[in-house]
Design goal:
Blueprint: H1 2-14, H2 17-20, H3 31-47, E1 54-56, E2 59-62, E3 70-76, E4 82-88, E5 104-110, E6 125-129, E7 134-137, E8 141-145
Antiparallel strand pairs: 1-8, 2-7, 3-6, 3-8, 4-5, 4-7
């Protein structure tokens, strides 16, 4: 929540002072009103033309060439499925994410309808991807721009 408000304030400070008169004053809003405003801003972002949702097929993809560098949220494209995704510095000679001594991040993700043995699974993961690194997946993955950590509701 604080990150969202800070981001909004930074954006506001970038514009000339004349444009500040057009922005609403949010200093008097209650907590509930601020949460409603945040939800409305997120909806507007998701409905904007700049918002993109791209399905990446299985394979090894180079960041900065195949996938744009940036902070991405990832989730499975299929229904009732589970897989691992890998963000790796360098693949092995076979193009697999298992190169000895390389830096990597990986995460198992499952669709929301996945249920096995009563376990709970993560449904999405975010990676801040840098050019020159690689992304590997064995199943189709949906990439969406990262919009920040979820609000957990703490005051």
């Amino acid at each position: 929540m604080k990150r969202l408000i800070t981001s909004i304030l930074i954006i506001v400070l970038i514009f000339p002072a004349a444009s500040l008169a057009d922005l609403p004053d949010i200093s008097g809003l209650t907590y509930d009103e601020l949460v409603q405003l945040k939800d409305a801003i997120n909806l507007a972002i998701w409905n904007s033309e700049e918002w993109q949702e791209v399905t990446v097929p299985p394979g090894l993809w180079k960041i900065g060439e195949d996938i744009p560098e940036g902070h991405w949220n990832l989730r499975l494209a299929a229904k009732h499925d589970i897989t691992y995704v890998w963000y790796i510095e360098q693949p092995n000679e076979l193009g697999e994410p298992f190169a000895k001594g390389t830096k990597y991040k990986n995460q198992q993700i499952a669709t929301e309808d996945w249920n096995a043995f009563g376990n709970e699974y993560i449904h999405s993961v975010d990676f801040d991807m840098k050019a020159g690194w690689y992304f590997y997946c064995e199943k189709s993955i949906i990439f969406t721009p990262y919009t920040g950590k979820p609000d957990l509701g703490f005051k």
